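TA notes, week 10

Several of you asked for a full example with nothing omitted. So below is the full record: structure tokens for the whole chain, then the designed sequence directly under it. When grading your own attempts, check the secondary structure regions first.
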């Protein structure tokens, strides 16, 4: 295998790491590659792509909140805007922590910043009441849009499973369109490796409102409705899987109605046992 193939495979493993398991995946990849100099060439781009896709969040120094490392907040590699404080965060992408905070000039018009602030507050309240262990961030983009992201994580490594909810919503500038997507990912890895990935896209019309608070309330009402409908559909699908599909996959008992002791199968007299039943 060439060095280029090794780099591509290592980067793919890191980018596709399940929720909360990127450090474990990186350590395993590092042991497999066995060449830190080669791995160094793909570490930061792979971690950055993973963080953007999975909406990984970092704690802001001297604050009581976290910021999502989303593509809409990226200024340059390892540098992200904290839209709440207007500062620039210098981030260690591998260790997922903020190294320093720098001043950053806000270039957006004031009315867009007011809308962003109102939506950010409303999204925080909704996420805190609807999702445990959630983080939300709202960005104002250069094209005049507002983008809101919500991520909620559940990690249980002692029982070999992890899960993550992600949703991203965008208010398009100069229109009454609200588009979004929601994704749910669960990884179960006790004596196996099973992942469940689901997603849904949304597109709805919102009322054109000039007041930032009224706009934020209308947007959050729509987000709550569509995310709730999606989660109800997920629960119904899961119930059908458990009651129908998974049940049909279970192995039926043999004619003896007893489980077979496979280690002792060679000592069985199958013909005589069956004829006596």
């Amino acid at each position: 295998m060439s060095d280029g193939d090794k780099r591509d495979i290592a980067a793919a493993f890191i980018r596709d790491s399940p929720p909360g398991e990127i450090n474990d995946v990186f350590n395993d990849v590092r042991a497999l590659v066995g060449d830190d100099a080669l791995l160094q060439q793909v570490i930061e781009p792979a971690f950055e792509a993973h963080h953007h896709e999975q909406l990984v969040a970092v704690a802001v120094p001297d604050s009581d909140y976290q910021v999502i490392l989303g593509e809409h907040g990226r200024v340059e590699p390892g540098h992200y805007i904290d839209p709440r404080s207007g500062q620039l965060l210098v981030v260690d992408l591998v260790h997922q922590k903020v190294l320093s905070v720098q001043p950053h000039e806000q270039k957006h018009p004031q009315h867009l910043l007011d809308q962003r602030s109102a939506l950010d507050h409303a999204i925080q309240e909704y996420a805190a009441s609807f999702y445990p262990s959630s983080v939300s961030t709202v960005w104002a983009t250069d094209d005049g849009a507002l983008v809101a992201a919500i991520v909620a994580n559940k990690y249980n490594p002692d029982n070999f499973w992890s899960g993550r909810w992600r949703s991203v919503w965008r208010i398009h500038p100069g229109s009454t369109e609200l588009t979004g997507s929601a994704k749910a990912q669960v990884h179960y890895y006790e004596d196996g490796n099973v992942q469940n990935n689901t997603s849904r896209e949304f597109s709805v019309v919102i009322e054109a409102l000039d007041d930032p608070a009224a706009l934020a309330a209308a947007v959050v009402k729509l987000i709550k409705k569509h995310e709730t409908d999606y989660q109800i559909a997920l629960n119904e699908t899961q119930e059908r899987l458990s009651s129908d599909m998974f049940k049909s996959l279970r192995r039926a008992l043999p004619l003896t109605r007893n489980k077979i002791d496979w280690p002792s199968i060679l000592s069985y007299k199958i013909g005589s046992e069956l004829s006596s039943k």
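Residues 191 and 261 are 21 Å apart (CA to CA). Use that as a sanity check on your answer.
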